[in-house]
TrEMBL record:
Belongs to the CorA metal ion transporter (MIT) (TC 1.A.35) family. One of its GO terms (cellular component) is plasma membrane. Its main location: membrane. This is Zinc transporter. The chain crosses the membrane at residues 270-293, 305-325. It comes from the Bacteria. InterPro entries: CorA_cytoplasmic_dom, CorA_TM1_TM2, MgTranspt_CorA/ZnTranspt_ZntB. CDD domains: ZntB-like_1. It is found in: Cell membrane.
Length: 331
């Protein structure tokens, strides 16, 4: 059966590891014998949305109902579960790099692992799996089941690093433009979206970091001797990325606060100027309004120079106000 025929059964990839960094692909028809024999390290990668995947897991994989239920449940978050006989369950999250997708809408990868078996399930395409296949075909991939799950986690963490770096570069660009041009107005929508995306990504990275920490502490008998060191390194890398995300959110907040302060200062300056102008013209408006009352007895109404005298009074009043404002340091 060809690989295309296997995918019709929900099987995305199946490889037998050769113990030297490579592996040979196997078809759906070969799985039953390989699962029962458990003589070679087998990796089976399934499409969780395919109906045949559930059928194979429950009837042919040899896994009990409890494990199958966990692997097939709809909503999960990163977690580590120790099973009897030194078997483990891993639920990890990877960056969604599919076309048209939002990267922080992370893809779930569920993994059952034992000494000679690794069964993984995904709902959407995961770039980390493709990178692992490239390593296997080049003879530079994992040699055992423990190295396989470690390699998957490592590739997933690499993709997270790229996304975190994009966030940092985005805020760096905004801050640099503000420093170079004080009149530059940052894009509020872009900054708010960046903060939301960083918060969404951190939501999954924090529990995933704890998964790596648990794998560092819970060394399985079938793990390679230095696996704990590599899991600890992944834990440290995720810790650094989480700190970068926290810093990014804080920097976005500072940029928005600085922009709000700048707008407040600008608005206050405008309102201050309006207040000064109003203060200058308010007495004049009162005077002209008083003289404009259409009743008898208005001073200067019969004087041919009355208008000029009124204008001169207002000019003198404006000059007096100007010197008064200067003395009070209002202008």
């Amino acid at each position: 059966m060809s690989e295309q025929d296997s995918q019709q059964w929900g099987l995305v990839h199946a490889y037998v590891l050769d113990g030297k960094g490579g592996g040979r692909p196997v078809s759906y028809d070969e799985l039953a014998d390989l699962v029962l024999a458990e003589r070679e390290s087998l990796w089976v990668h399934w499409d969780r949305s395919h109906p045949q995947t559930q059928n194979w897991l429950r009837k042919e994989s040899g896994l009990n109902e409890f494990v199958c239920d966990l692997l097939l449940e709809e909503n999960t978050r990163p977690r580590f579960l120790q099973l009897p006989e030194s078997k483990i369950l891993l639920f990890l999250r990877g960056v969604n790099l599919n076309p048209g997708a939002v990267p922080e809408d992370m893809v779930s990868l569920r993994i059952f692992a034992a000494a000679k078996r690794a069964i993984s399930l995904r709902l959407r395409h995961l770039r980390a799996v493709e990178d692992l296949l490239v390593d296997l075909r080049a003879g530079k991939g994992p040699k055992t089941s423990s190295e396989l799950i470690l390699a998957l986690a490592d590739h997933m963490t690499d993709k997270i690093e790229s996304l975190v770096s994009d966030f940092a570069e985005g805020i760096d660009e905004q801050e640099e433009q503000i420093d170079n041009d004080p009149s530059f107005e940052p894009d509020h929508d872009t900054l708010l979206q960046m903060r939301r995306r960083a918060a969404g990504l951190r939501r999954f990275l924090a529990p995933q970091r704890e998964v790596y920490a648990q794998l560092t502490r819970n060394q399985q008998p079938w793990f390679v001797a230095d696996d704990a060191d590599y899991w600890n390194e992944l834990n440290n890398r995720l810790t650094r990325y989480i700190e970068e995300l926290d810093l990014t959110r804080e920097r976005v907040g500072l940029v928005l606060e600085a922009e709000d302060r700048r707008l407040d200062v600008k608005m206050n300056r405008i309102m201050y100027r309006f207040g000064i102008i109003t203060g200058v013209f308010l007495p004049m408006s009162f005077l002209t309004g008083l003289l404009g009352i259409n009743v008898g007895g208005i001073p200067g109404s019969e004087n041919p120079y009355g208008f000029l005298i009124a204008c001169a009074i207002m000019v003198v009043l404006a000059v007096v106000q100007w010197f008064l404002f200067r003395r009070l340091r209002w202008v």
